[in-house]
């Protein structure tokens, strides 16, 4: 992944809102670094997209879906650029989050 360009409002450039946690850009860089660290061991590696979830709060669902799409794009581009297999999750998982998490 040579470059990630994030356009939009502060939901993407959100360092001021993460209470000291990593912002989106930092998380994307950490993901690429983690993949590289795994590849250095010379073992087979399969990347997997992120499950989208199903949340009762419509506004939260919209935000979650936006971020999952962003991360899934990075995951799939990372896999393609390194000729790695990728598993796309989410098909048939449109169930309430409480059933998935067991909460």
Radius of gyration: 15 Å
| Residue windows where pLDDT falls under 50 for at least 5 positions | 4-9, 97-103
- Output the structural class: mainly alpha
- Give the number of domains: 1
Order of helices and strands: HEHEH
In short:
The chain is mainly alpha-helical and 103 residues long. It has three helices and two strands.
Question: What does the model show?
Answer:
With 103 residues, the chain is mostly helical. The chain has one domain. Helix content is 44%, strand content 4%. The chain has helices at residues 24-39, 58-81, 97-101; strands spanning 47-48, 86-87. The protein has a two-stranded parallel ribbon. Helix 1 packs parallel to helix 2. The model is unreliable at 4-9 and 97-103 (pLDDT under 50).
Write the layout of secondary structure elements.
Elements: H1 24-39, E1 47-48, H2 58-81, E2 86-87, H3 97-101
Helix pairs in contact: 1-2
Descriptors for this entry?
mainly alpha, two-stranded parallel sheet, 3 helices, disordered C terminus, 103 residues
